[in-house]
Specification:
single chain; 579 residues; alpha/beta; Glutamine Phosphoribosylpyrophosphate, subunit 1, domain 1; Rossmann fold; 3 domains; eight-stranded antiparallel sheet; seven-stranded antiparallel sheet; globular; binds 5-amino-5-deoxy-1-O-phosphono-D-mannitol
């Protein structure tokens, strides 16, 4: 949610910050804005997305600037609520990612003391609180104000007469990039990679002062040292590389992502707690939750380890009696619900493991141990390659627990993804793009694949889609089946194939168009299907991967056929850092 980016160096800062904000837009795109410090603080901000051209930064002169892309929480998305926000004098500017929970109380006090507000945001109170204590030392002012604030924040602050950018974080991510005579601070590494791979991930409670030559970090008022990391990601990883959308690029990255993840995991020291776990509870949200459901099937079926999966947002408030290992899975490692769920498990005394994509992310700081999924930066709001990388982690863990019995799957499964990428989905896309409602069904480990297929479809095409365990359709949703309501069914061979085939026939009898994914030589399915999509390989590992990729592509091409804004679906943002 929201992206912030700051630069101080030898160049005109507003142009650098504007380019950086484009790379952060996937975190929120309701509005954007920049404050630059020249002789005074100048601000430019606007509702909507950053236009390719036409946003004038001529007035934003200066070599230090801070910027923001917004996912609205307090106040509608309009020009006045766009960040940066200033104090009454206009000499202090703030950008903020997070939520200030006690803002209403603080605002009442500020209004009583004569402050004039120009927005409905929670953020603006920070500028006014700073105004009250700022006596020429911005660091001291920020350190005085932060204890008054409850909630989550990553902030960047500029003041007219101060040579620094001051940055601070609590429960919202913030990374500092160390350049050549330039310093950067951002919500994540993506806008910084263009300039440097030297990064410091700030910790909760850190306050950092940035000048072009140095960064100083303070914790509870005292200077502290933080380790610098040289990240593996490159600026190429955050470009579209010739594809029309990041989502398509990321889908096509998946054979390499899978192989790279497996290779990297084989080198990684795996935390012993996995081997010792008697019972596993997994908490996650969205796509990561669906991946976790697949992990549960694998753990129980293949490894005979009892596992349960909980939606992190529910678990946090209604935790079941806990025993054994608790695993948090999150691409970003910053999802508020998952962070809070894992923190709760830790407080209850459970050993915890984080499976994340982003090095140094908040979830890794809570957990006793961490595993990286090695997917590379994922820019598209719709998660794709992180899902496949999550599966790579799970398959790898299963392989370890089965003492190498899945090694051949791990070595060859990328081919199933490659073949899935080559399939012609035209007839299926034609069928889906005319529909108002679509059901996605599967059984066993393919049920979460269906859930994920439905999530992808609704998220980017805005077609109402529901994922169901195939056997459940007759317990209610059957009432909705009609010739206008296609069903996409994953019919992998295995124990449930027979009942799945019966379920499909029952649907066919209601005139429902059937898009069936099945083994390529399955004549029965081919006969009954309106559209048949062959699974390149139907063993569990390859079948799960290829079916997932096919449903990602089905959603992508359907959304594209309908002219939707695929990388930036309405109302969404990549990292959900609020509850
Ligand atoms: O970063 P996380 O894996 O914790 O994110 C969880 C969900 O917000 C995320 O998977 C979301 O559902 C995706 N946009 C789905 O494509």
């Amino acid at each position: 949610m929201c992206g912030i980016f700051g630069y101080t160096g030898g160049s005109q800062a507003a142009a650098i910050v504007l380019e950086g904000l484009r790379k952060l837009e996937y975190r929120g795109y309701d509005s954007f804005g920049i404050a630059a410090r020249g002789e005074s603080i100048q601000v430019g901000k606007k509702q909507g997305r950053i236009p390719e051209e036409g946003f004038d930064i001529k007035n934003l002169a200066g070599t230090a600037a801070i910027g923001h892309t917004r996912w609205a929480t307090h106040g509608i998305p309009d020009d006045k609520n766009a960040h940066p926000h200033r104090d009454c004098t206009g000499k202090i500017a703030v950008v903020h990612n997070g939520i200030i929970e006690n803002y209403a109380l603080l605002k009442r006090g500020l209004v009583d003391r004569g402050h004039r507000f120009s927005s409905d945001t929670d953020t603006e109170i920070i500028a006014h609180l700073l105004e009250e204590v700022y006596k020429g030392d911005l660091l001291a002012a920020v350190q005085a104000v932060l204890p008054l604030i409850d909630g989550s924040y990553a902030i960047l602050v500029l003041a007219e007469a101060d040579p620094r950018i001051v940055a601070a974080r609590s429960r919202s991510p913030l990374v500092v990039g160390i350049g050549d005579e330039a310093m950067f601070a951002a919500s994540d590494m993506t806008p910084i990679l263009e300039y440097t791979r030297r990064m410091i991930v700030l910790e909760d409670g850190d306050v950092a002062c940035l000048t072009p030559a140095a960064v100083e970090i303070y914790q509870k008022g005292s200077r502290v040292r933080r380790n610098e990391e040289i990240v593996r990601w490159s600026s190429e990883d955050v470009r579209k590389g010739g594809f029309r959308h990041f989502m398509l690029k990321e889908i096509f990255d998946q054979p390499a992502v899978f192989s790279d993840a497996v290779r990297a995991l084989r080198k990684e020291e795996l935390p012993g707690i996995i081997r010792e776990a008697g019972m596993v509870t997994i908490v996650a949200c969205g796509t990561s939750y669906h991946a976790a459901l697949i992990f549960k099937y694998l753990l129980e079926e293949q490894c005979r380890v009892a596992a349960r999966v909980e939606l992190a947002s529910e678990f946090r408030y209604f935790p079941p009696p806990l025993e054994g290992l608790v695993i948090g899975i999150s691409q970003s490692g910053e999802t508020a619900d998952t962070l809070m769920a894992l923190e709760l498990a830790r407080l209850r005394g459970c050993p915890t493991l984080a499976i994340v994509n982003v090095v140094g992310s908040s979830l890794t700081r809570i957990a006793d141990a961490s595993l990286l999924m090695h997917a590379g930066p994922e820019i598209s709001v719709a998660a794709t390659k992180s899902f496949i990388a999550e599966l790579a982690v799970f398959f790898h863990l299963v392989d370890i627990m089965k003492q190498g019995a899945w090694a051949h799957h791990l070595d060859s499964a990328h081919r199933a993804i490659e073949e899935a990428l080559l399939l012609d989905l035209g007839p299926a896309v034609a069928c889906c793009s005319q529909a108002k409602d679509i059901f996605f069904v599967g059984r066993g480990a393919f049920y979460p694949v269906a859930l994920e297929g439905a999530l992808k479809m609704k998220e980017i095409s805005y077609i109402h889609a529901e994922g169901y365990a195939a056997g459940e359709i007759k317990h209610g949703p059957f009432a909705l089946l009609s010739p206008e309501t296609p069903v996409v069914a994953v019919c992998a061979p295995g124990e449930t194939y027979g009942v799945m085939a019966s379920n499909i026939r029952e649907m066919k009898a209601r005139g429902t168009p059937l898009i069936l994914l099945g083994e390529k030589d399955d004549r029965d399915l081919q006969e009954i299907a309106d559209v048949f999509i062959p699974l390149p390989s139907a063993d569990t590992v390859s079948g799960l991967l290829s079916a997932s990729v096919i449903l990602q592509l089905l959603a992508y091409h359907t959304a594209d056929a309908l002219g939707k804004d695929i990388d930036r679906p309405r109302n969404l943002a990549k990292s959900v850092t609020v509850e």
